Amino acid sequence: PNYFKRMGESPEPIEFLENIHGGAILHYENFPTEHIAPRHVDVWLPPSYKDLHEKRYPVIYMHDGQNLFIAESSFSGVDWGVSRTISHLASLRLIPEVIVVGIWNTEHRLSGKPYDLFEEQKEEQLELIHQEFGNLPSSDDYLRFIVEELKPFIDFKFRSKGDQPNTFTMGSSMGGLIACYTICEYPNIFHGAACLSTHWPCSSGIMVKYLEQPNIIPDPANHKLYFDLGTDPTDEEYHPFQLAVNNLCHERGYVQGKNFAYEFFEGEDHSEMCWRNRLYLPILFFLGCQIKD
């Protein structure tokens, strides 16, 4: 791939963790990139990967990757339990096994969120963003890293199903924003986006304004969108924005339970523990009933 021609040798993992709920994690430190500041990347391979040498797997690209698999690396001390949830669902034959790519954030993570949504954005708006987050936005560069560098590497190095129907993205809070932005900007690459407790109020709801543009929300004929919210003070602030997004998706042709899911969790707060507890829902929504013998 062009990525290797530009960057030289293929990145190699510095750590290999076995028996992570039957699978294994490969940890790539400071994954090389021409688009953004290097960041760590974890690749979780499911239990059958080491033995079924002809089998290929769907891939979920998840943001804030340090919070996904191991409590010690999570900023809150609680991980999402991604490998546990996926292994359990696969063992019940409710979903196929999948590869999960966890993209770590950095100290500049807020600048990697979707604030550069409009090419005509005025200088004063950019200055407000700079004052709010301390950096100018770089979300388009972050997406180029995923699409032009990381995904080609994953599809070259691992036995992935690299086509659009088998490629998904997921995140929570600010990561929910970038997951939504990802599928809107690259609908030919991503089939589904799961956005948990999405931080819609950022920059006066600029992401909702972005979604109001004609045909920005991807075609419901070959995409799936998942959103959810709790009711703690943080998530409660998101409700009016989320309802507006739901309406935009329905106007685009999305149907609840078919290609669109919105779930509401009374009493749940804005935390890794709560996202961990409901992670099974978007995974089942995307991958349920796809088992093929």
Task: Explain the overall architecture.
The chain is of the alpha/beta class and 293 residues long. The chain has a 9-stranded mixed sheet, sandwiched between helices. The chain has helices spanning 2-7, 82-91, 123-133, 139-157, 174-185, 202-211, 233-252, 272-278, 280-287, and strands spanning 15-20, 23-31, 39-45, 59-63, 99-103, 167-172, 192-196, 224-229, 260-264. Mean pLDDT is 85; it is low at 110-122 and 133-137.
State Rg. Answer: 18 Å
Mean pLDDT: 85
| SSE succession | HEEEEHEHHEHEHEHEHH
Distance between the termini: 32 Å
Largest sheet: 9 strands, mixed
- Count of DSSP strands: 9
| Total helical elements | 9
Instruction: Provide the helix percentage.
Output: 25-40%
How much of the sequence is in beta strands? 15-25%
Low-confidence stretches: 110-122, 133-137
What is the structural class? alpha/beta
Strand order of the largest sheet: 1-2-3-5-4-6-7-8-9
Gross geometry: globular
Write the layout of secondary structure elements.
Blueprint: H1 2-7, E1 15-20, E2 23-31, E3 39-45, E4 59-63, H2 82-91, E5 99-103, H3 123-133, H4 139-157, E6 167-172, H5 174-185, E7 192-196, H6 202-211, E8 224-229, H7 233-252, E9 260-264, H8 272-278, H9 280-287
Keywords:
about 290 residues; alpha/beta; 9-stranded mixed sheet; globular
